[in-house]
Amino acid sequence: MSTMDTATLTCLGTGDGHPSADRNHSAFLYRLGGVTLLVDCGEPATRQLRAHGVGADDIDRILITHLHCDHIGGIFMLMQGFWLLGRKKPLTIHLPAEGEAPVRQMLNASYIFPELLAFATDWQPWQCATPITGDGLILTPHYSTHLEGLRAAHGAKHPQKFEAFGIAIEGAGKRIAHSGDIGGLHDLHPLVAQPLDLLLCEVAHCEPAQLFQFLADKPIKQIAFTHVGGKWRERRAELIGLAQSQLGKIPFTFVEDNQRLTI
Ligand SMILES: [Zn+2]
Ligand SMILES: [Zn+2]
């Protein structure tokens, strides 16, 4: 099988936002044909990429779903690594628009100047529901209400955009939906509107029983659940049993760090 025929997901970090001694924060490596995407860059993404033999020039695009630290906290070390490892391939970074200026400022503050890098970085902020094409892929960000609660409580003092996205990824003959962090099941509607080869779905910000019920009749070939948090970490067997009983014939897995799925 040539690399053009393969579609895989390597789970670099499957934890939630809480500090953990045994789980990494969100980072997922998709290989779709000859294209490699890093979706979210929680710590310790750089170490994980090294451990999985991913070279500095291997990643084509970085997709950041939102700016919570468990999803973006590893990006500074990643860029330092690209500098020290001598990355040459141009890099595209998709992220919420409000993140571009501060992330670039922080890179400058940490002495990762553009002039040091032997590659160009193309910053492409997400525009809600506007597909991006390139590398033979179609990437479509769909708005998530994940941060709306924070907006309601703190938006007056902190007038930020509070943007979060789930991403539809089409390429290599596959259709994938990556939920990012959600605010409720309604955020999944646009992602599951069409048949999917893979849904990667977080479970920290919803009631799992309702989520499984919602997904049970959707045309999805495979579901990978991530971001298990709170009480469910200790009740994993119960959680899996719940999914088994409600999802019917849809194959699913609760992914762990370093797990690799064929899509
Ligand atoms: Zn998160
Ligand atoms: Zn979050």
Q: What would your notes on this structure say?
A:
The structure is a single chain. With 263 residues, this protein is of the alpha/beta class. It has one domain: Ribonuclease Z/Hydroxyacylglutathione hydrolase-like (Metallo-beta-lactamase, Chain A), CATH 3.60.15.10. Helix content is 24%, strand content 27%. The strands form 2 sheets. The chain has a 7-stranded mixed beta sheet with strand order 6-5-4-3-2-1-14. Helix 6 packs parallel to helix 7. The longest helix has 13 residues. The chain is globular and about 55 Å long. 41% of the residues are buried. One zinc ion binds next to loops.
What is the CATH T-level topology?
A: Metallo-beta-lactamase, Chain A
CATH class descriptor name? Alpha Beta
**Total of helices:** 7
User: Structural class of the helix and strand makeup?
Assistant: alpha/beta
Number of domains: 1
Mean pLDDT: 96
Unreliable sequence segments: none
Question: What is the CATH H-level superfamily?
Answer: Ribonuclease Z/Hydroxyacylglutathione hydrolase-like
The main β sheet shows up as: 7 strands, mixed
Order of strands side by side in the largest beta sheet? 6-5-4-3-2-1-14
Number of strands: 14
User: Which distinct ligands sit in these coordinates?
Assistant: zinc ion
Distance, first to last CA: 14 Å
The CATH architecture classification is 4-Layer Sandwich
User: What letter string, H or E per element, gives the SSE order?
Assistant: EEEHEHHEHEEEHEEEHEHEE
Strand content: 25-35%
**Portion of residues in helices?**
10-25%
Radius of gyration: 18 Å
Global shape = globular
